[in-house]
Amino acid sequence: xxxxxxxxxxxxxxxxxxxxRHLGADVTVTDRPEPLxxxxxxxxxxVGHFAATRRLDDTGLTGAIREAIGRHVxxxxxxxxxxxxxxxxxxxxxxxxxxxxxxxxxxxPNAADKVPHVGWNSIDVSSSSRLFSDVASGEHxxxxxxYHAPITADTxxxxxxxxxxxSAIERGNIFGVQFHPEKxxxxxxxxxxxxxxxxx
Amino acid sequence: MLxxxxxxxxxxxxxRVVKGVQFVDLIDAGDPAALAHRHAxxxxxxxxxxxxxxxxEGRGTLLETVRRTAxxxxxxxxxxxxxxxxxxxxxxxxxxxxxxxxxxxxxxNPELIGQIGADFGAQAVIVAIDARRNTxxxxxxxxxxxxxxxxxxxxxRSVIExxxxxxxxxxGEILLTSMDSDGTRAGFDCELTAAVSEAVxxxxxxxxxxxxxxxxxxxxxxxxxxxxxxxxxxxxxxxTSRALKQELAQQGISMRLPC
Lengths: 200, 259
What we know:
heterodimer; A: three-stranded mixed beta sheet; 20% helix; B: alpha/beta; TIM Barrel; eight-stranded parallel barrel; histidine biosynthesis (chain B)
């Protein structure tokens, strides 16, 4: 199970890499586009500000990811890495996303509940999802975010906090999760294992 | 539904977990990596490791303890104690922490909150506040003071005001320890916790005083805590996270129940 993890200096990769190695994956970490030409699977982690994804454009990683996705290489974006799959986010209007999904990520609306959404919340899983194979609706995963994606036909899992939002997205070989599977106990490890076991 | 979090805290000195009463009288409670792993299996939602001596000489030991503890831990893992600079924080993240908890250093140098957040994200920065009610005031709760240096020094600052500032400087969460309650097992300071939780828009973790299931229910209800932290209640087999969470769930409090 070979997987390439992209380092674009947005937060800390240690936990993601540790979880993947725990699952027996052969992990390569890169901040350059070249290794993506031979990647079997790609994970784009990321926490913090959407503007940090600018580094993907500056380093040529955006183009390399687009090419890999075109070759049907399974791709998983985590947290900001998922949000980047959309056209953009109101967190950084000047910074475009990959636009694999045309919607825009927005901040949770003002409400009595606190923003950011931090902690363990339940997921309602789409039965056709490959990423959530053998993961039941109602299981809890760990979130920490202030921006979220809307529910659409490509939503693989939804979660309710203030309002319903897409906690995971899936179309063909493109996957994204708003939560942190590497910090979501056995449920999260199962989701990562499902990704590692996907065949092109 | 977002669940309330139960956080298991390991106070570590020289690589061993210890527990004291009101910050003194320390006794040995075991190996941090083994205890962290056990807590996670038993359903703790997060693990916090606090280096309570935090001497310069002890940094190497701490980082090795963090590395060993983090290696097989797949729930959020926070490390605090003696983090004075962004470089100290980076070393702890590199060893496998997901969040750092900063206390005295944030008070002395509030810019540190934003500095760590710039590199690792606001979610990775917990500002820990050691608070004591101000009995000289007509409103001891709202006028509670922040203490530093392991609770030995009164900073003279208002808890509510400092929590506000920490939030505005980019803290992701507040870890509020009531020094009046700490180690007493007589219950959390719900009035103080509610005052802070209502003053900020970031999650507040209540700490100090856990002794019974009812204390947790109380701090989630009256105290409006987003999470509650406890140490001694777990270490000596008084209760497990699993038993605690099952009882709280039965009382209608939203909990992630371990499988």
